[in-house]
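WARN retry 2 of 3 for item q-0093 after timeout on previous attempt; input resubmitted unchanged.
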Amino acid sequence: MRNATHRLIAIVASVVALAISPPAVAGNDDQVVNHTRALIEWVFGFKLDATTMQAIRDGTAIDMSKDPAGVQASVQDMDNVMAWVAKHSAGDRALLRSLIEPQLVAAFQADTDPSSDTSKRLVVAWRAHNHPIAEGTPPLRRAVVDSYVGMFEFISKHAGKSVPAGIANHDQFAKRVAAQYAAASPDMQMKFNNVQTLWLATQALWAQATPAQRNALSAQWRGTAKPVAAAPKAAPPKSGLGAQTFNEERYKEHLFVLGQSRAIMSTWSNPFIH
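OK item q-0093 returned
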C-alpha cells in the first residue's frame, strides 16, 4: 500500500512549490491511518466504510513493521497534499483531484507490496461507488464518458456545429466507448480519463474569458480563424513531483486546452486512435 501511495504523491506536484507549515509527525499506527484516510477520502470523494478502514489498519501495521521511515515519508507527503487542498479554491481542487483519482486507482491495481491486500480492498470500495462500465487500468466510469460528451456538445454549440448522432445518443456512445476502452492500451486508457480534467479546464477557460476572447475561441472551434501556434513549452522534469506540476499547470494554459479540445472534436468516432 505504501508504494502505491508514493505513486499518488508523485502526481501531486504543485504542493512542493508551496510555502506550507511543517507536517505533524506520525507517532503511531492510528495517526498514519488517519492521515491515509483523509487523503484517500478526498481523492475518492466518498467516506470509507468500516471494512475498508480495517484493511488500511492492517496494511499500515505491515508497512510500519517493515519500513517505518518510508511510512513517515508518506505521511509527510500526505500532510502536504492536504495542506494544498485547504489553501486552494474549489476549482483548483477539482482540477487536481480529477488528475489524481485515476492515477491512484491504477497504482492500487498494480500494487504488489506485502500490504497489497489493502490496495485491493480500496479498489473494491472505489468500484462499488463508481460502477465501472468497462475494465481497464483504471476501470472506466460513466462520469468520464459524460465529461467527454459534455465537452463535445459545449464546443459544438459555441462553434455552431451539429452534434453527430453517434454522440447525441449518450447511452449508445457510452457503450461504444466502453468497448473501445477495454481494447485500448493502459496509456490510452489513462489519457482518456484526463478528459475530465480537460472538461473542467475548458469550462474554467470559458467562464474567465471576455466576450472578445469567447468569440476568438468559437472561431477556433469553428475552424474559421487562423490556427494559433502552440506556445513553446519548457521540457518537464523527467520524473517525480516536478513532472506532475508541469502536467497540472498545462491544464490552465489557453493554448494547451484549446489544442486538446480540438483533438477530441476530430477523433470522436474512436478516441483511442490519436
